Amino acid sequence: MKTCSYCQDTAFEDMEVCYGCLHPFEKRLELLPLLCDEQGDTVCLNVELAGVFAYKIHLLKTEGALLTVGKSSRNAIVIPREEIADHHLDIFFSQESLWAECKGRHKAFLDGMTLTGSHALQKGCKLTVGAAVITVV
Fold it and tell me: Rounded to an integer, what distance in angstroms lies between the CA atom of residue 96 and that of residue 43?
């Protein structure tokens, strides 16, 4: 048996992808670039799980643009952990700013402080949801 570095699920040695999160075992996530190219019409978010860089997401700077975070596969950012709600967090663009709002009954943190209600995000802000860290770059 082997353990997925992304979601910590166990898998048989001959499996090429984790059935818990679909992470390919041969892919070395820590070698991916950590910074996004500067784009004038998007905001970039780096997503790390269990301390390993997983991927980056660009969110259009348009009113109503939305990213959802949670353990349900219907979310833009899926965190397959028990302590995460199905729909845990919204990250959205409104009033020319990027915002985060906790939706789950479990906690989320913004720069180490408990996130309650909606909060504006700045470059360098870190949202922590369970084992995931989402950084605005």
Answer: 11
* Entry pTM: 0.69
Tell me how far CA of residue 90 lies from CA of 23, 34, 54, 77, 102, in angstroms. Answer: 23, 22, 19, 10, 6
> Nearest CA to 103 among 67, 137, 136?
67
Domain topology for 32-136: Tumour Suppressor Smad4 (2.60.200)
Q: In the structure encoding, which two tokens stand for residue 7, read together?
A: 């979601």
Distance CA 132, CA 121 (A): 17
In this predicted model, what pLDDT tens digit does every residue of 20-56 receive, in sequence order?
666 676 654 443 333 444 546 788 888 888 777 777 8
Domain boundaries along the sequence of the chain: 1-29, 32-136
